[in-house]
Write a structure and sequence with these properties.
This protein is α+β, with helices and mostly antiparallel strands. The chain has 9 helices and 17 strands.
Length: 381
């Protein structure tokens, strides 16, 4: 944005006078913001004033100089910083979007939820609610909700005028995920007048923000679960994709598709905890085993040496469908002790995961013991 300044002068040579005191004779240097400028007309000392070409100084400061010969006017254009210009632009856009009726405020907000447009939602909030929710919108980059499920449509169920002159609305959103319908949610809004415009002053069950925040927390729990499940592996990549999410009151559930790419977390097969236990068994019990028992144990160890070597050298992908349920407090924070995770079986049914009963979640020491016991059972001891 350019700002126009006029400098009326009576000569063609343009100079600016700077009061100064000269301590020594010699060439005068012109330095602007730490950079020396060498104009075609050098600075001069006239009547105890340092005279410098205005064109060189203003252009060095980022301004633009124009000479209007007919009017003998120097025109200097300065530029409003981009941040100020953008702020002004946003203010004008919000003013243009200002609702003139309570229903218009609700419609625009609901449209913003459907389109995941946080800026549109924010534009129709009251000043107090804007202050309260600004951090939330900035945290999600002004893109609210999640990619799946998304709000397919909305409907205003109820509008009531209160004795205080405000309006109360109920808006139902229908949610859909890639797997199909994902339920509904109802937001309750209060709209009040401010001058000639109407703004939303209160929102209950704002799925556009709380839904995303809850989804982020549920996704983090799934990622933490996978980290525990593959703690004995070298994880190369983890992908967690939200398939569906449903929140009813304080209860939430979500389905995720996961893919974990790994290598075994050891350099040789003998370092793998279960294999280490098998080798340990053979070393400690060889003297007490029959040749046939020794043969069985050695064949088992050799077989797994070959299998494990492949997983050490070649990355493998583990794909799964996981479901998580949890409860949230009044602030939308997940209650850790309510988290339950389910894994889909080959028949497409979700079964609860009992970490303490699965080998993947055991410690290295427990896996060594498991390998040891497997060999004991193999030889019938």
């Amino acid at each position: 944005m350019r700002k126009r300044w006029l400098l009326i002068i009576g000569v063609v040579v343009l100079v600016v006078a700077l009061a100064t005191t000269t301590f020594a004779a010699g060439p005068i240097k012109l330095v602007v913001n730490g950079r020396e400028i060498k104009p075609d007309v050098p600075p001069q000392l006239l009547n105890n004033r340092t005279m410098v070409p205005i064109k060189w100084v203003t252009e060095a400061l980022g301004a633009e100089v124009k000479w209007e010969a007919e009017t003998r006017i120097v025109v200097i254009y300065t530029y409003v910083p981009e941040s100020n210009s953008l702020s002004r632009q946003i203010t004008l856009l919000q003013k243009a979007l200002a609702p003139t009726t309570p229903g218009e405020a609700v419609e625009k907000w609901a449209k913003g939820v459907k389109e995941r447009n946080g800026a549109l939602q924010y534009a129709v909030l009251s000043p107090e609610l804007k202050t309260q929710k600004l951090t939330d919108y900035e945290r999600v980059g002004w893109v609210t909700g999640v990619s799946s499920p998304w709000a397919e449509n909305f409907k205003i169920l109820k509008e009531t005028k209160t004795n205080e002159g405000t309006w109360e609305y109920e808006v139902r959103f229908t949610w859909v995920a890639s797997t199909g319908p994902a339920g509904t949610s109802v937001a309750k809004l209060t709209v009040k007048q401010d001058g000639q415009n109407w703004y939303i002053s209160q929102i209950s069950n704002d799925a556009s923000l709380t839904g995303q925040y809850q989804a982020e927390q549920l996704q983090k729990e799934i990622k933490d679960f996978l980290a525990r499940q593959y703690k004995h592996y070298r994880v190369l990549e983890t992908e967690v994709s939200l398939l569906s999410q449903k929140v009813t009151g304080s209860f939430g559930e979500a389905e995720f598709k996961t893919k974990v790419t790994t290598l075994l977390g050891c350099k040789t097969p003998a370092e793998w905890p279960i294999q280490k236990g098998k080798i340990k068994y053979l070393e400690e019990n060889r003297q007490n085993l029959t040749p046939e028992q020794i043969r069985k144990v050695e064949e088992e160890i050799d077989f797994w040496n070959k299998e494990l070597q492949e997983y050490i050298e070649k990355p493998s992908d583990a794909n799964d469908f996981l479901k998580i349920t949890a409860e949230f407090d009044d602030q939308g924070m997940l209650k850790k002790n309510t988290v339950k995770i389910y894994s889909e079986d080959p028949m497409g049914k979700y079964l609860p995961v009992e970490e303490k009963n699965l080998p993947a979640f055991k410690t290295a020491e427990e896996l060594v013991k498991q390998g040891y016991e497997e060999m004991r059972e193999l030889v019938g001891q």
